[in-house]
Design brief:
By secondary structure, the protein is α+β, with helices and mostly antiparallel strands. It has one helix and four strands; from the N terminus they run E-E-E-H-E. It has one helix at residues 45-57; strands spanning 3-12, 27-30, 35-42, 61-72. It has a four-stranded antiparallel beta sheet, with helices on one face. The longest helix has 13 residues, at 45-57. It is globular and about 35 Å long. It starts with a strand and ends with a strand.
Length: 74
């Protein structure tokens, strides 16, 4: 059984739920304090770096990256 890590990525500012597809299907949650939390499974380090590069390319401020668990693929 394959496993992938579930990440929680916190950024400054709000982004729309419509960006979910661009961020590998991660769930987008807007906090009342003006931050956005992206949560979801990321299969490997290459995919994680891809998401982080998208955050950088959009000029968003990265506040935190945290692995919060694992999920089974099959």
């Amino acid at each position: 059984m394959l496993k992938e890590n579930i990440y929680q990525i916190r950024i400054m500012g709000h982004i729309s739920d419509s960006w979910s597809t661009w961020f590998e299907g991660m769930t987008i949650h807007q906090e009342e304090n003006g931050e956005t939390i992206l949560t979801g499974p990321i299969p490997d380090q290459t995919a994680l770096h891809g998401v982080l590069m998208k955050i950088r390319d959009l000029g968003l401020i990265l506040l935190e990256v945290k692995c919060i668990g694992t999920s089974n693929l099959f």
